[in-house]
Amino acid sequence: MAKARIQRTLSVGVTEHGNSAVLVTVASDGELIDRRRIELTESDLPTHPHHHEGSWAVGRHKNSPWSREISLSEAVELVEQVRAAAALGAREALAALAAAVSEPITYISIRQCPELPPTVEECIADNRAQTFADTVMYRQAVAAAAEENGWTVSWYDRERVFDEAAIVLGRDDLGDFLAQLGRSIGPPWQAKQKLAAAAAFAAMTRA
Asked: In this structure, which topology does domain 10-206 adopt according to CATH?
């Protein structure tokens, strides 16, 4: 009697930088399945509307040569435009990833989001919140698109994610393993790709 095929689990790890993100997809047996970089918005939109345009609207950096006049209502509207574009970009990017791999994806792991004030206006006005509100917006766009696909979303802590991945893989040190994983696919394989890979594995233990 033929042995039943062991069903693997696929998981995606995400590291974002502005409106772009690196996605690394791995299988539960340790194989690297896919690595790609995605853009969530088009180049005609600002990448950090809370931090840049929002700051200009409330008078931060108004003496800087790169700032420009913009009202708070215009800044808020711009944030919402970018949010909608990021939502669409995330849906399209994750649909393309799902179509490119031959097995269904179960998990996705995204970096934890700090708490934000409840409204765009408050995020812009808060000197601390406006520095990371855009990053949170992009992470949430990816999470929402993943949930639409039926993937289980988890949120990783950068300080603990490598230890969590090591538990899944049964390894004390991930350094050699991640280096080999990178060699299997070739460059680019830098810190952000390694972090995304670790996050993808870690999602399996959190699940």
From this structure: Nucleotidyltransferase; domain 5 (3.30.420)
